[in-house]
Amino acid sequence: MTVYLRSLETAVPPTVLIQSEARDVFAAQPGLSRLGSRLVSTCFDSAAIDTRYTAVGELTTGSRSENPQFFDPATGLLLSPSTKVRNDIFAAEASKLFIEAADKALAACQGIEAREITHLVTVSCTGFFNPGPDYKIVRALGLNPSVQRYHLGFMGCYAAFPALRAAKSFCDADPEAVVLVVCAELCSLHVRTSNDPDTIMGSALFADGAAAAIISARDIPDQPALLTLDHFETVLTPVGEEAMAWNIGDEGFEMVLGTYVPHIIDDHIIGALEPLLSRDASLLGLPYRDIRHWAIHPGGRSILDKVQSRLELSDEQLIPARETLRNYGNMSSATVLFVIRHILDLPAPGAGTDGADTGGALAADDEGGERICSMAFGPGLTVETALFTKITAPRAASGEADLQRPGVPRPASALA
Length: 416
What we know:
Shape: globular
Low-confidence stretches: 353-361, 394-416
Radius of gyration: 21 Å
Helix content: 25-40%
CATH class of the largest domain: Alpha Beta
Structural class: alpha+beta
CATH architecture of the largest domain: 3-Layer(aba) Sandwich
Strand content: 15-25%
Largest sheet: 9 strands, mixed
Order of helices and strands: EEHHEEEHEHEHEHEEEEHEHHHEEH
C-alpha cells in the first residue's frame, strides 16, 4: 500500500532574532569569563545563521515590561526564570503554534475535512502540559472528539521521523485513516547566559517553529499528493550517549551538544544509511550524490559539513538544509520538515531549470518521481533516516517560499 503526504505547512512565531544582535547581547553579560566571551563570539559567528524566531516577545529591543523575566532592555541583562515560568509560557505559546500549523495543513489539503482526521500525532521536547497540544488542536479546529491522539515528548531533534513512521503504520493498518502530524518547539525558552560551551552553542543555534502534515493512503482526486512515504529506519551509533542529551534543570532545560558530535556522525553516517538504502534495490551501490534530494536536519553547520564531505554531496544538494539553518536556526523536531518543505518548493527538472543541479544520474522511482533521502540526529546518539518520493509540482519556485506564505513574518530587527 502506498502512503502519501498530502500537505506540509510551517509556522513560526512573530518575533525575529538577528544573529549578530543576539551575539552582542550574550557576549556583553557580566558573568562571562574571558574564554566564555570568546566562545560566544565564535559560536554565534560560525553558526551560519542570519535569523531565528522566538515566542518570547520580551526579547525584542522595543519590548517594555514592568517585571521582565528573560531580558531587561534597560540594563541589557539576560535573566534566569525558573523552569516553571518557562513551561507556563510554553503551554500558552506552543499551543498557538501547534494550532496555526495544523490549521494551515488542513487548509492546504483540499478534499479532507477536519472531522475526517482519524489520528493525531503531536511532537515536542521543549515543554509539557496536560491536557496537551493534541487536546488543544482537537478543540480549536473541530476535530472529531473520538480522534485517536498520540504525543511524542522529549525525543529531541529526530522526533518528526517516529511521528511520520507512526502515521504510515496507521495508514498501512487502515486504508481509510487520515493522520495529522504536528511538531512544535520553543527552544528559545531555554537559552541562558553561561560559560559552559554546550550551553553557549545551544544559545547560538536553537529557535522556535512548527510544522504540520497530513498523511493518508486514501485516493483524494482533488488533492494531488506531495510525497510518498517509502521507508524509515533507526540506528543507534555505538558511541555518543553523553555527547548529545536534553535534561531538565531548575532554570529551564539543559542542552548537551558536545563538540565531538560532528565527528561521531562523520564516523557512523555510512553505516546508519545502509539499512535504509538496502530497502530499495535501485539504490544499492549508487553514489550518494546520485540520489537527487537530501533533506538533512541542520543540527549545526559543522554537522552539515561532515555529512556533505562524507557522502560527497554537491553544494546544491545541501542548499535546503543550509538555507533552513540560515533563515530559521535549529527548531529541533520541526526543522527537518522545513527542509522537506524547501525541497517540495523547488522547481521540477525541466520546469525552468536544466535538471542538472545535483549532478550524476539522479535516482528516481519507477514513475519518474524525485527521490529524497532524509535524516535527523538526536540524543543517544540516534540517527533516524527516511526515503520519500516527491511526486507533485511545487507551489513556489524559490527557497524563500516559507517567507512568502501568509502568516510567516519577514525578518525585522530584534535583540536576542
